[in-house]
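# nightly structure sweep
# worker-07 picked up a monomer target from the shared queue
# config: single-sequence mode, recycle default, output format = structure tokens
# input follows
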Amino acid sequence: MPSFLDKAAESDEEIRSTQEKDPADLSGAQEPDWDNPDAWSGSTESASNSASENADRTAPPKSKKPKAPASKSKAAATRTPALRRGRPKGPDRKPLSTRILPELDRMLTKAVEETGKNPQTLVEEALAMYFRRLKIEDPGPGEGSTAA
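# output follows
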């Protein structure tokens, strides 16, 4: 009488034989004959299939007119794009690159650690407080966009 272990191994073998083989599994792969390069191809043809042999094959002619895009209904064109999951998009921001003194960098790092806010938020809040103190108001879009 077969043991439980034998039955389990037999069952595993049955399952493996009925399942589709994983293409990345090389367990049953045959090692190529390294001394015979002609045997390296997977087919019975000779292994000397160069690109020049493929040159005599004619490709279907390409039409000169650009293809019209696939017909879409007007409803599909005006439909909003599918919602993406994840973090919501924040406000539009302008890229800004600046260099700061090492002591300010250390203080910024300490502020990030103590407040849990990110550096961008801290810099934006600091600039907003500084502008309020100087009584500088937003000139509006387009008016204050001169290059520095």
